[in-house]
Structure formats: C-alpha cells, structure tokens
Write a structure and sequence with these properties.
The structure is a homodimer.
Chain A (H helix, E strand, L loop, with lengths): L1 E7 L1 H4 L6 H12 L3 E8 L3 H11 L5 E5 L10 H9 L3 E3 L1 H13 L13 E3 L3 E3 L8 E6 L2 E6 L3 H19 L4 E9 L4 H16 L4 E7 L4 E9 L4 H16 L3 E4 L4 H11 L4 E5 L5 H6 L9 E7 L2 H8 L3 H7 L4 H15 L3 E7 L14 E8 L2 E8 L4 H25 L1
Parallel strand pairs in A: 1-2, 1-3, 3-8, 13-14, 13-15
Antiparallel strand pairs in A: 4-5, 6-7, 7-8, 9-11, 9-12, 10-11, 15-16, 16-17
Helix pairs in contact in A: 2-6, 3-4, 7-8, 9-14
C-alpha cells in the first residue's frame, strides 16, 4: 500500500522551518510496511493545494495532509478542502467548547480567531487534538483515505499514534518490512561496494530484498530490507544479515541505532579498563562524544586537551627537543602523548591525536591535513597516519572517528585472542 | 521568479534521513527574492522521477534536482534525465581523471564503480564538485533552468554557492529582501518576546517588515526582514536593526552567521588574553566548540577534561576533604577548578564546569540537572548556578553555552570600562 505526505506551509518553503514531520511520519509508515512514495510541500494558497490534490487523490491508499489548520487568515487548508471535495464546512459546537476549555486550563481567554477552528468538513470523522486547538479530520475520496493533521509536531504525532497509525494497521495487517542497518567505519563507500558486489548481485534476483549504502563523514551505514511475506521470512532475513556482517569483517562495528562510542564503552566496561585521552587536533571532540553516553564515567577518566605545545611539555613531560626534532605533528609526539597520559593517570589505554587541520598550517614533514593517532596499552603503542581533506570541521570529525576506531579494533582483536 | 526543489532518494522517503538540504536551499533562494513554490521528494525510481519532471519542467524558472548521483546501482538520476530529455550520456574523461586525483590525494585507489560518475549529460554544463566525486549539471528545457546537484549536503552547498546562486542573481537582479538575524543568549523566548513587544507592535503597521523568533536549545535568533522597495530602504532597515539590538541589551551577542565562539575568541585576541578550561560535566564540549574556529590556538591553551574525582585532585590539587565537604557539584569545586587551571597554566581566564547531567545521579545538595560554572581572572572569581532539564545532551549543550556566555559577558563588561 502506498502513502503520500502533503505538507502545507509557507514557513517550510521559505526555509524558516525544517520539515521534520515528514521524516517522522515516513519512518512510522515504513515500519508498518507502507511504501511512502512521495513527499510534497506547497504554500498556503488554494490553487497550489488544489493542484496537488488533483495529482495525488486516487493515486495512493493514504494521503496525509499536514498544516494550515491554525486560527489565522493565512491558514486555508479547511476552506480549500471544502471547495475541492465539494463538502461544506460545518460549525462544530462541541469542538469549540473543547477549545474554550483548553484556554481556560491555561488561564487564558479564547480569542475570536479560534472560532474559525470550529469549522470542520461535514461528514468527515473528527480526529481529536489532545494537546492543541486544531482538530484533525479523516475522510475518503476515490480509493484514497485522507487524513488532515496540524503542523505542530507533537499535535501531529499524537493524532498519528492514537488514530492514523492504528487505522493503517487495520487496513494493511499482513505485510511487514524487516529492516536492519549495519554500521561500518574505516572503509569508504566505493571500496565497501566493491567488496559487497557478489552479495548485491545475489539479492538482485529477489525483488523483496533491497540493500542501500548510506555514507556520512565518519561511517557507511548499510540498510538491508526485506518484505516479510512468509512465516520463515524472519529466519531468511537473519541469514542475509549475518552474511552481510561477515562480509563487512572488522569494518563492521554494530547495528543501528548503536554508536561506536557505545560499542567502545561497553567493551571497556566488560574488561574493567580505564581510558585516558590526550587530544591536540581533535580539541576535545573525542571526550565530548564519549561523554554523550550515560555512565561513561565508569571507564573514561578524562582528556588532556593540549592545544599549545608548552602544555604538552608541562602536562606530559614531552621535551622541547623531541618537539623540535620531529615537529608537533609526528608519530613520535603522538606516541609520547598516548603513552604519557596513560602512565600519568594509571590507565589501561591512552589514546592521542595530533594533526594540522587547517584551513592553513602544516609543514614539510606533515602537510596540511596530516593527522597522527596513537594508542598506548601495556602491550605497546600502535600508531596510524591519516591525510584528511582541508575542511577543518570534517577533518576533525574524521580524526576523532579514526582514533575511536583504532581503539575499537584493538578491543575487538584482544577479545578474539 | 519561481523555483521548485526536487529531491531524489529512498532514504528520505523511508524517514532515514531528514531533508535538510531543501531548507538550506529555500532560505538561500528566498533571500534572493525567488519564490520557492514547491518541494517534492520521490524515490530512486525512473517512473516516479519522470512523472514529476513532466509536472514541473516548464512550470517554474528554476528546477533544482538533488540526489541519486552516487556510484552505486541504486543511483539512477543521470540515466533518468538522459532518457526523459532525450539527451545521451557522454563519458567525461576529464571528470574521471579528476575523480582519480581525489582518490589519490586521499591515498586510496578509485574503484570501478566510480567510473559511472563520469557519464554526464551531453551538452549540459558540468558543475564541478570541489569536495566529492559526483559532478553537477546545468541545462535548460522550455523556460526552466535545470540544475542537478548531489545529495551530500556540503557538496550541494558548495555548488549552490559557487555556481547556482550567482546564476540566479544574474537572472533576477531587481527585487531584494533585506535581512538580518540578531543572536541572543541567556534569555528565553517568552521573556524576550515580552521585552520586544512594543517593537513588534510598531512594525506591525508596516507590511514590508517582519520579525521572527527562532529559538533553539542554546539561543534565540531574531530574524528581521524588509522588502527593499525604495532607495532609502537600506537606511530605514539599519535603523530598525539598531533599535532591536539596543532592546536586546547584553543578551545580544552578534549577528548571524557569527557565533558566540567567534565573538569570544575575537575579544580574547584583541586583549591578548589566554584561556584555560577545566571541564567536568561538559566533557570537552566547550573545548570542542572553540576549536571549531580556525586560529583558536592563539588564545585557547587547552582544557582539562576531568571526568573522575581523582583527576581533580591529581591535576588541580583539589583536596579530597574539599570534595567530600562540598560534593563534586558545588560552588567551591567550580571555583577551585577555574582558579586552579588558570594558575597552573598561567592563563588570563580560567573557566570551569561541574554538574550532574543525568539521566540519573545528583544528591541532596545538588539534585539532577544542577550545574555550577565558575570564571576566574586576576580580578577574582565569578560563579553561576543553573538547574537544567534531565535530558543529558540538551543539558550538556546548555551548560557549555552558559559557561561561554559567562565569559562573553565578562569580556563585554570589561571592554565598556
């Protein structure tokens, strides 16, 4: 079954507001096995709304229309629907008295404007709004079930959860989509696509299975989907997912919505390890990311964010000779930072970054974009060199990710031993 | 002149990704006086793309098509455009060699897949991608100028800024909208709205002027807009903007796209001051935010991110008696951290945070959500106490902002003296 989402609102078209409602609705509908085939946004103008109604009603099973139900003169959704479907508006006394109660509860008096929100489509089902004054509506035209909801996110969500999603489930009980996202890092999209090509070729034979590559600055997400048509679909899906995970090898680190931070903290906790950071070019980003996770203080001791060379001497005893001889961005300094902070704080692991992130800087030994990462443990020190692009913020993100990934791989490896 | 934005991508329709590209494009185009009349999103399927091309080409002056230019099998935008407009695809040797250089620079080998990105529409203008492998395109059909851009946000933005927006300006030079966004922090939306009410009443008389309140977790942005209809509009607009700035008082910190980090770093540079941070609950976020700005190393020395109490003793000599007597989240510990890091590193300013951010934790003296902030300088130590909500990430953002804002206000105040 197909759904189309129609958003009405000038504030979206001028870029004042991000259209997050359609993302939320799309995810919910997709989870129920509904195919969302189109998102449309038009302004608060009758001719534009009427035009898209003409092209969508009858073309889908569900049409959800959001926005333009407010009390002011620029909200024209109800009048437009009334004229387009030739259904008169009817004053709903009961709804208006409910609006009055809402205002009373908030210690305010209802304005005359709000009475406009009492005019609803005759014979359509009213979808009550339990946290605002704009009522929703539900009616049918041709084969399309049409729902009208307010643009205010929590009011829309409440109506979707209470009324619309249960209705959709009732209409479409059988089909379900199995969905799993595998997270990888440390490998680019193209290299991963090359490696997974045999798998992609194989699933192409099955129209019920799809695989999407979703790259971002720091990772590539693989979304595997399968239409669940038979009772053994779930086992088949698990088999495909496991095959994919094996092909990803060490570049796989978890399933969405897990994060690399969580994976690392869980592994460190299970080993009762302590982590110390010494950050130069990442400037606190690694510590910031890890401290987003509740309970991180069990394993993360802290971070020495040392942005100036004198502090590397003062805090970690790195000699000015070593700095001068190798340059601040060098394997030797990364090693000294990782090892220094681990020993200073008595940690299991010391993780360090040093690099030139730009937009300017760099020297002959370490040109702009060079980043050295080091991980120290009782077993020794591992280092990695990277060369990132010149965009400062993206390079910083990639450097932090590369450092976290070095630690993750070392934790994985040691758990296999 | 009218623009329509067409997004192509299953990941948007299934709700995996928020369509933030269209908001960004809409804002930029609106600023140039272009009416964005519609947003459309369809999946990576030829028939869906062809259907919306039919309904939009010829109906607007500018059509911007974003997404589906990647190297994998599910990216079908170019093939679809080729068939729809009956323009063959041509292998662009030069572009492929550019892609190869991009891979080489990153120390990787181009995969076979990427060659697909060399097939471009014959006779269309190539819009170079300066940070990725998918080239953009520009061509005309009927009265509509058609631009094709990648879905990756920074690649799209770069093409918009370098090529598309300048082209649009050239086509539509006359109408202009004057626009300025004033940034405030440390005051809530309602309190600010109350203070600005007389100003809002005054501008309501002028239909060419609008003021919007755009609140986020850490600040309230005020967007002032005016249609520029006469030669003295610019002076009138500057007058209104200045009036608004005065009303915001000390809560105003700059004009968009400036940030509080930039304002602080500029002020510190002009005073040749050095800043040291000691972060507990903000976990490196303050350092991370400041190190996003190029050149911050001139004034930011670093940050001691001390997530465990033993480190507060080890690094800053804060006695266990003081910790036990007052608790780690207390005015005394915030003072000792700010003063301690300043003296240890010989800094002009020491800025410190300590708090319980949840989702659990807190004690009788400092319940969940309590944050203490301290700023130390040669003049003495200033402290502030906050009580934030229990959402960890939002509370952390607010704590970092509150700390930066305490420093900003102290810099402003001293510059007035």
């Amino acid at each position: 079954m197909k759904a189309i989402l129609l958003t009405i609102g000038d504030e979206i078209l001028i870029g004042q507001i991000l259209n997050s409602n359609t993302q939320w609705m799309s995810e919910k509908l997709t989870d129920l096995g509904i195919e969302v085939s189109e998102h449309l946004t038009v302004g608060d103008r009758e001719e534009d709304i009427a035009r898209v109604l003409k092209s969508t009603v009858g073309e889908c099973d569900f049409l959800i229309i959001g926005g333009g139900l407010g009390p002011t003169h620029d909200d024209v959704t109800m009048e437009t629907l009334s004229r387009h479907f030739k259904v008169p508006l009817q004053y709903d006394e009961e709804w208006v008295s409910r609006i009055e109660v809402i205002f009373k509860d908030r210690g305010r008096v209802m304005s005359e404007n709000n009475k406009k929100q009492g005019y609803l489509l005759k014979d359509a089902i009213r979808i009550d709004n339990d946290c605002g004054t704009a009522a929703g509506q539900h009616f049918q035209d041709q084969k399309t079930e049409i729902f009208v909801v307010p643009g205010v996110p929590h009011e829309m969500m409440s109506m979707m959860n209470r009324y619309i999603l249960p209705f959709v489930v009732g209409k479409n009980p059988q089909e379900k989509i199995l969905k799993r996202s595998l997270l990888t890092t440390g490998i680019g999209e193209s290299a991963l696509a090359d490696r997974l090509d045999p798998f992609v070729q194989k699933i192409r034979a099955n129209p019920n299975v799809t695989l999407a590559f979703l790259p971002s600055t720091t990772q590539v997400k693989l979304r595997l989907q399968m239409k669940s048509l038979s009772s053994n679909a779930s086992a088949e899906f698990d088999g495909l997912s496991e095959e994919l995970r094996r092909l990803c090898g060490e570049d796989f680190f978890g399933f969405d919505p897990s994060t690399i931070e969580e994976v690392i903290l869980t592994a460190l906790k299970s080993k009762r390890s302590k982590l110390a950071l010494a950050e130069s070019c990442t400037g606190g980003l690694i510590a910031h990311r890890l401290t987003q996770i509740p309970g991180c203080s069990e394993v993360l001791q802290g971070s020495l964010v040392l942005y100036q060379n004198e502090l590397k001497q003062l805090e970690l005893g790195i000699s000015s000779e070593l700095l001068q001889k190798n340059g601040a961005v060098s394997e030797e300094i990364a090693r000294a930072m990782a090892d220094g902070v681990r020993k200073k704080w008595g940690s299991t692991f010391g993780l360090a970054t040093t690099g030139y992130l730009g937009p300017t800087g760099g020297d002959e030994r370490a040109p702009l974009g060079t980043v050295w990462i080091a991980l120290s443990s009782a077993k020794g020190i591992t280092t990695r060199k990277f060369r990132f692009e010149s965009d400062r913020m993206r390079a910083k993100e990639r450097a932090a990710q590369a450092a976290l990934d070095l630690l993750r791989r070392s934790l994985d490896a040691s758990s296999i031993v």
